């Protein structure tokens, strides 16, 4: 499943074509989904407004962001237990990643997002979901050559 796997931090960086320069990242949650945009050149991410919707309403907002930002690929944070084991939210985030790929036909890369929300809250973020999406995206961007 090319472009859909980065199972954990110990894995090798994903194979991302060098012409992919812009990315949109998501910190998936049942009620809220944090969003960040970023690019490969600067290796930085900028928080975007958190999506506060579920189901088809969530995907309508995702589609609007994709139209606005025109990313080359998408990045989804996948939570895990501290020991790396998957849990229910792991599977939900992976399902979300598959749905993004299926609906928008863009490559989707998964990033281990353990502790991203904790890090966002510790930094005093006003919107922890968007800040988590930034952390996820910057981690991904740092893994690229």
Automatic annotation (TrEMBL):
Protein name in UniProt: Putative pre-16S rRNA nuclease
Family membership: Belongs to the YqgF HJR family.
Keyword Protein biosynthesis: no
Function according to Swiss-Prot or TrEMBL: Could be a nuclease involved in processing of the 5'-end of pre-16S rRNA.
Subcellular location: Cytoplasm
Main location: cytoplasm
EC number: 3.1.-.-
Domain YqgF/RNase H-like: 21-120
Keyword Nucleotide-binding belongs to the record: no
Enzyme class, spelled out: hydrolase
